[in-house]
Write a structure and sequence with these properties.
The chain has 223 residues and is an alpha/beta fold. The chain has 7 helices and 8 strands. A 5-stranded mixed beta barrel has the order 3-7-6-4-8, surrounded by 4 helices. A hairpin with a 5-residue loop joins strand 4 and strand 5. The two termini are 26 Å apart.
């Protein structure tokens, strides 16, 4: 286990640390738990945080307090709202950074490597790379254009809080991968209609091998 000297900074996290995948909804957890974990490098925990940044912060902090996950790499995953015209349900967003409600960014780890892994896992699906912005409510209507104007390409309620809380608990690799369930031309009437999004559910499940590939790559020498 990593330890700190009496006055020096903490040692870097164990590169063989487990993977924590955080999501908010039960249907997201069902997809992420039921997918292919055969390529996992080590223990994988899928944590349901429940909706909203406050719940995400609370759940992730509690999970990382225990010894089993203290140095885990953390991925925020699940569904999101696409902000850019032309996005469609089933598209995948690999965040270069997540932004909190105040605009403060958390830079994700090895975004290019992760996006390449997602593209290999989901041939034929569109993979978008860019900032993922946080919100404390479901984004609808004209608000999409307002958030798009900030440079963000997608929005969700938990990713920014999840990654900020993870890094506050100690140094580690972090990432956010989300599947678009609604977009400017494909807006949901209510969050419960996600259950009808069979395509997005299947895409989220199929993303898992890419998350495991990214996690394994953390052991590789940096160039």
């Amino acid at each position: 286990m990593a330890s700190a000297g009496p006055t020096g900074p903490p040692d870097p996290p164990d590169p063989t640390a487990p993977l924590l995948i955080a999501c908010a909804l039960g249907i997201e957890r069902l997809a992420l738990r039921g997918g292919d974990h055969s390529g996992a490098r080590g223990p994988v925990t899928v944590l349901r945080t429940r909706m909203g940044p406050v719940n995400a912060e609370r759940a992730v902090r509690a999970a990382l307090t225990g010894d089993a996950l203290r140095h885990a790499a953390v991925v925020a995953s699940g569904f999101c709202a696409g902000l850019a015209p032309g996005m469609h349900p089933g598209d995948v967003v690999v965040a270069g950074e997540t932004r909190g409600g105040d605009g403060s960014p958390v830079v994700c780890t090895d975004t290019g490597r992760l996006a390449d892994a997602v593209a290999r896992a989901l041939p034929g699906h569109r993979v978008h790379r860019g900032p993922l912005t946080g919100s404390d409510h479901v984004v609808r209507g004209p608000e999409r254009a307002e958030l798009l104007a900030t440079g963000a390409i997608a929005a969700d309620m938990e990713s920014a809080a999840t990654l900020r809380t993870a890094l506050a608990a100690g140094p580690r690799a972090v990432a956010a991968v989300r599947v678009v369930v609604d977009a400017p031309e494909h807006e949901l009437v209510r969050i419960g209609t996600v259950r009808g999004g069979i395509s997005a559910f299947r895409v989220l499940r199929a993303v898992l091998p890419a998350l495991h590939e990214w996690h394994r790559s953390l052991l590789l020498p940096r160039r």
